[in-house]
Task: structure prediction
Amino acid sequence: MVSLQKGQTVSLAKSDGGGLTKVAMGLGWDVRKGKGLFGLFGGGGGDIDLDASCLLFDGNRRMVDEVWFRQLSSKDGSIVHSGDNRTGAGDGDDETINVDLSRVPSSVQTLVFTVNSFQGDSFERIANAYCRLVDLTTGREMARYDLTGEGSHTGQVMAKLTRNGHGWDMKALGEKTTGRTFHDMSSAINAVL
Result:
């Protein structure tokens, strides 16, 4: 597993020379506990509804499809969202986007993964937030990026997968932005293409 820092890129080619075919981008988070008696003070507690999205772009940087809580599958079925988690409760990934890279249309050159707070909660209220890429064939975690970072932002452009000559590369982006959905974050998304 590779722990990525903002701006780092990792190749998704397997050590045996082959490429990954099925991956999952997992998003996990917890609500930051408040301060004071039983964590009741200091803005902690409650639920936070973060949403993971995957946006598909062609070689001309045009968005050709979107996968998010209002469209749980790409038009061709190569990318499927696990569904909306509105609380962040529980261990492990709270939302997952499964990608069959072998079925992503050849016209799609870039997949951009975003996270946003639908209710407008800032990341100051979020703890233990991460995105991770898992090889679904082996179950092995390939890369992880820590999203936790205090700030008034309500969204992040997490990572992107880009086609290279032999497969795909993943780049950790961590670009802080604002927006209740990825639609509100279009300028930050376009800046990373």
Notes: Residues 36-42 have pLDDT under 50 and may be disordered. The chain is about 5% helix and 45% strand. The radius of gyration is 16 Å.
